[in-house]
Amino acid sequence: MAVGGFDNPNNGDPNKDYPGAITFYVLVTCIIAAMGGLIFGYDIGISGGVTSMAPFLQKFFPSVYRKEALDESTNQYFWPELINAAAQNIAMLIIGRILLGIGVGFANQAVPLYLSEMAPYKLRGSLNVVFQLCITIGILIANVVNYLTSKMEGGYGWRVSLGGAAVPALFIVVSSLFLPNTPNSMLEKNQPEKARAMLKRIRGVSDKEIEAEFKDILAASEASKAVKHPWRNIKNRQYRPQLIMSILIPFFQQFTGINVIMFYAPQLFKTIGFGDNASLLSALITGGINVLATIVSIYGTDKWGRRFLFLGGWNSNVHISVSGDVTDLPKWYAGLVVFFICVYVAAFAWSWGPLGWLVPSEIFPLEIRSAAQSITVSVNMFFTFIVAQLFLTMLCHMKFGLFIFFAFFVLLMTLFVYFFLPETKNIPIEEMTCVWKSHWFWRRFMPEDRPQI
C-alpha cells in the first residue's frame, strides 16, 4: 500500500514499459510548444503593474484615479496586444482583452495536452511543467517591464507594457508553424504511417521498440473514433473520476488565492507601506521566486511524484494565508510580510501551479481528452475571473479574514489530494486507467474491461 491508503498504480499493468528517452528533437519541440505560456504569464504579470500606473488610471479610470490617486491561439495573442497598446478608450481596451482571452483559452487547452502526448512517459511531468515555467517567466518579464516603463516620461509607459507582449507573440506565431502533430493527432487524421514515423523520431528508438506503444496509441485512437459525442460520453460512469478531477483541480488551483498575489502584488505592496517603485520591485522579487520554485517542480515531479509535491505545498500556503492584517505596518513587519508572500509563491510554484495543468492533461483517455481539457480550462478561467473580481470587495469587508478564507480552501484541497488523487508518475498516458482501477474509492466506477462504445 502506498501513502494515504492507495494501491501502487503500477500494479494495474506492471510489465508496461515503453522504451525511449528524451531526444533533442522532442526537447526542442516541447520547449517551443510550452512557450505558449509566456504570453499567458506576461498578461497575468502586466495587469497588476499597469493598473498601478497613474497615467493609465488617469486615462481610463479618472474617477478611480482622483479618488484613490497554438496557431489560432498565437494569432489571438498578437493582434490583441497591439489593440491594447493603441487603446484610446475603454471599449478598445475591452475588445483587446476579450481577444486576448480567446487566445489564452486556446493555448491553455492545447499546450498541456500536446506536451503530455509528445513526451516520453517517464519524463512527461518534467516536460509538461515547462509550460508552467514559461508562465512564470512571462510573469517575471512583465514585472521587469512594469518596473522600467513606470519610470518613462510622457505617461505612455503603460502602452509599452501592454504592447510588449507582441514581441514574444510574433516569435510564437512563426515557431508554431514548424511544430509537428503528435502521433495521437496523426492517428486521429487517419495517418498511421506518419504517426509511426513520428513516434519513432520522438522516442529515438527502432521500429521494433516502438511497437508496443504504437499499438496502445492505435487502440486508443480506434476507441476514440467510435465515440461520436465526447461531451455526452464524458458524463458516463466510467469517466466520473476524470470528470471530477477536471472540475475540482482547476477550482482548487484558483482558490489557493495565487492570482490575488499575481494580479494585485503592486497594490498589495503599496498597502503595506512601499512606494510606487518599491512595490513594483517587490513584485519583481516574487516573480523571480516563482521561476526558481517552478524549476524545483521540473526536477521533482517525475522523481518524487505528483502527490508528494501537492502535499508538500500546503503548509507554506496556509502559513502565509493566515498572516493577514496589513494596516499601518512598521517597516520590519512589512518586510516580514513580503518574505512570507515569497514563501507562499514558492509553495504554489512547485505544487498547485504546475500540477494544476499537468495532472488533468495526463489522466484523460483519448476519447474524451479534448472535451475534458476544455472543461479544465473553462473552470480555471471562470474562477480566475471570479476571484479577481471579488477580491477587493471581499478584502474591504473581511480584512485579514479573507486570507483565512483561502487558508480553509488550501486545507480542504490538501485533504482532497491525500484521499482522492492517485499517483500518476511513470504511468503511460494510454494506460492511465490502471490508477483508477487500483484506487480505494474510484475503483467502484471502473469496469473490469474497456467498455464497448
From TrEMBL:
GO cellular component terms attached to this protein's record: membrane
Main location: membrane
Start and end residues of each Major facilitator superfamily (MFS) profile domain: 1-425
Entry's localization field: Membrane
GO molecular function: monosaccharide transmembrane transporter activity; symporter activity
NCBIfam families the record matches: SP
Keywords in alphabetical order: Membrane, Sugar transport, Symport, Transmembrane, Transmembrane helix, Transport
Keyword Membrane: yes
Provenance organism: Fagus sylvatica (Beechnut)
Domain of life (superkingdom): Eukaryota
Protein name, entry field: Major facilitator superfamily (MFS) profile domain-containing protein
Transmembrane segments: 21-42, 90-115, 127-148, 160-179, 243-266, 278-299, 332-352, 372-393, 400-421
Family: Belongs to the major facilitator superfamily. Sugar transporter (TC 2.A.1.1) family.
UniProt xrefs under CDD domains: MFS_STP (cd17361)
Pfam families associated with the record: Sugar_tr
Membrane disposition: Multi-pass membrane protein
